[in-house]
Amino acid sequence: MTGPGGPALSECPAWLTAVAGLSPVVDPVWARRPRQRPARPGAVLILFAPGPPSADPALDTRLVLIRRAHSLRAHAGQVAFPGGALDAGDSSPAAAAVREAGEEIGLDPRGVSVLTTWPAIDVPVSGYAVHPVLAWQDVPAPLGVRQPAEVAEVFEVTIRDLIEPAHRLRVRLPEGTMGPAFRVDDRLIWGFTGGVLDRLLDLAGLAEPWAETRVEDLPVGRP
Questions:
Q1: How far is Cα 113 from Cα 128, in angstroms, rounded to an integer?
Q2: Shortest CA distance to 134 belongs to which of 212, 221, 19?
């Protein structure tokens, strides 16, 4: 694992390096619930990699996501970033995020450049304060499920997928709170993950106008 400015950043798009220089506050509305217990520190890896050769490689940049196992007690079946809790042996949130990605999806830390670690986002519903860790993998390697008890699938989306206006919507939870979401290839990306991606696209200046009046109710029990 290398740091910013290393040789692995040769194809890193300019929008991503620009976003990495920011330290945004992400305040998702669903995180404003009363906390029932002290937050446990966690970290997720927002891992980008180059897409296939194209006329606009910046928009074909790929993002690695997972679907959480349906048997989990929290966030079962939801689309998420790889990651988890900080362990005693982790030197930083970034180290924890990379370690978790190795355990969950087989990520080889060699060639992965950590670009930045954003301030922790409080997620009372899960009991964590989560640091998003932005990273770049110049030479992608095969990834797959390594912990089926926690991860149901590993997949990728492109920036082009995420900025497509037809893929944007908001979801309304049963209690009435709403947050940004994306529907790509019949997968619904919402909650913490949707909120972070929504903020990231805005910061990168890549978001396109979309119909924010497009709202779907999230049924009870829906991943």
A1: 25
A2: 19
Q: Which domains does the chain have, with CATH numbers?
A: 7-159 (3.90.79.10)
Measured CA to CA in angstroms, residue 52 lies from 11, 62, 75, 157 at distances of: 12, 9, 32, 12
| pLDDT-derived band at 10, boundaries 50, 70, 90 | confident
Token reading at 38: 């002290």
pLDDT in tens, 69-112: 876 666 667 999 999 999 999 999 999 999 999 999 999 998 89
CA distance 118 to 34: 23
The number of beta carbons lying within 10 Å of the beta carbon of residue 30 is 19
Q: In angstroms, rounded to a whole number, what is the distance separating the alpha carbons of residues 25 and 74? A: 24
Residues 108 and 66 sit within 8 Å (Cβ to Cβ): no
